[in-house]
Write a structure and sequence with these properties.
The protein is α/β, with parallel strands linked by helices and about 400 residues long. The chain contains 21 helices and 10 strands. Strands 1-2-10-9-8-7-6-3-4-5 form a 10-stranded mixed β-sheet, with helices on both faces. Helix 9 links the parallel strand 9 and strand 10. The site of NADP nicotinamide-adenine-dinucleotide phosphate has 25 residues, from helix 2, helix 3, helix 5 and strand 8.
Length: about 400
């Protein structure tokens, strides 16, 4: 573990190299990890732990969609797949990965089957932080820990298979056994984290709810939509409006920002783009900061949580959510998006005749590949140059 000064603030960072396989086995070798829930997180985290040599069982409601999916993935009822109460009884670590509304609903079942000394693990601070609303209050005789991957469960699995790792935060809320910390960090590495940074349950949930409602999903879509609509109202074609709003952002600028930062992006664009971006970011910040303050306030006072639980606990919540999602899916912007994405060369099917030709002359195919822009971007020294070229702005 390292203590780093990041922006003048001391932060504790754990890297994968701090927990090599032998150390993981020593800490988790005797544990049975019961993963409760087989949604995106339950599925991704359980597969990664299994591949890291951890004994994993899964607990979900019998014959529900998750039960069927787990069976399809090769889990065996009575051996590695159980109903929820049985899995909790068998687990020495209970990873509570139902949906947040499901966690409130099933809490009495979990509480009544937890064994003394078990570790109760969450991937979100939600249920514990808002315990006055969720009723999730852990008994005194268990550890309460958190590992929250900063990304989808699909990414957790995908990065692991690529030999990379997701960034996750970790937190300890209750240490009954005296081993809560080592258990938490070892589990964090076992589920596929590349590095872990320390937080609290409260800070995790406040930042997470703010982020997903804000810049990660809510705010960004609101901004995209506003710009797209203005361009369309002013007579720009759908493909021009979409390219200028989404496609250029995700295909060209965001990967460069991910690689080098927005400061680099600003320094490596045309002076026209520089002048405009430097003037306008301040105006956008000014009008959106009060909205972010309002959002954080609603997260902190529990309004957002009450809304999530009220709406997502309704019998017909899946149907009403689907109606709203359908509206987004069928809006002009995303219908155009589908068409525009099809135009990316990598998404176009190659004519069959060409494939045959390439098979006969493998040497030529190799040569062609080498000269492609993608291949040249992979070469280190050419990378910056290629990246700069792609940054038209
Ligand atoms: N999604 C993410 O990318 C992400 C990222 C970081 C952290 N997290 C956190 O990780 C946890 C799990 O998230 P998730 O997205 O994987 O969950 P999810 O997909 O929303 O959860 C689905 C699981 O919950 C079960 N479930 C829902 N309601 C239930 C109920 N009333 N009784 C029994 N089972 C119920 C489902 O079982 P059935 O199939 O039987 O319905 C399914 O196994 C949450 O705390 C979430 O905040 C998620």
């Amino acid at each position: 573990m390292k203590t780093l000064s990041i922006g003048g603030v001391k932060e504790k960072i754990v890297e994968r190299t701090d927990f090599p396989p032998a150390k993981l086995r020593k800490i988790l070798g005797k544990e049975t990890v019961a993963v409760i829930g087989y949604g995106v997180q339950g599925r991704g985290q359980s597969h990664n732990m299994r591949d890291n040599g951890v004994k994993v069982i899964v607990g979900v409601r019998k014959n529900g969609p998750s039960w069927k999916l787990a069976k399809k993935d090769g889990l065996k009822p009575g051996k590695t797949l159980f109903d929820i109460p049985e899995a909790v009884r068998r687990g020495t670590v209970v990873q509570y990965l139902l949906s947040d509304a499901g966690q409130k609903d099933q809490w009495p079942v979990i509480r009544d089957n937890l064994q003394e000394g078990s570790a109760l693990y969450f991937s979100h601070g939600f249920s514990v932080t808002y315990s006055d609303i969720t009723g999730v209050i852990a008994p005194d005789n268990v550890d309460v820990i958190l590992v929250a991957p900063k990304g989808s469960g699909t990414t957790v699995r995908r990065l692991f298979l690529e030999g990379r790792g997701i960034n996750s935060s970790f937190a300890i809320d209750q240490d009954f056994t005296g081993r809560a910390r080592e258990r938490c960090i070892a589990l964090g590495i076992a589920i596929g984290s590349g590095f872990l940074f320390e937080t609290t349950f409260k800070k995790e949930v406040y930042s997470d709810l703010t982020g997903e409602r804000g810049v990660l999903m809510g705010a960004i879509y609101g901004l995209w939509l506003a710009q797209y609509e203005v361009l369309r109202e002013k007579g720009h074609s759908p493909s021009e409006a979409f390219n200028e709003t989404v496609e250029e952002a995700t295909q060209s600028l965001y990967p460069l920002i991910a690689e080098n930062g927005m400061d680099w992006m600003y320094a490596n664009c045309s002076t026209t783009a520089q002048r405009g971006a430097l003037d306008w970011y301040k105006r956008f910040k000014k009008c959106s900061k009060p909205v972010f303050k309002q959002l954080y306030g609603k997260v902190a006072d529990g309004s957002e949580t009450r809304r999530v639980l009220r709406v997502n606990s309704k019998e017909d919540y899946r149907e009403s959510l689907e109606a709203e999602l359908k509206e987004v899916r069928e809006s002009e912007m995303w219908r155009i998006g589908k068409e525009v994405r099809k135009l990316r060369p990598e998404n176009q099917s190659k004519p069959k005749a060409k494939k045959k030709k390439a098979k006969k002359k493998p040497a030529k195919k190799k040569a062609a590949k080498k000269t492609s822009a993608k291949a040249s971007a992979k070469k280190k020294p050419a990378k910056k140059k290629a990246a700069k070229k792609r940054s038209r702005k």
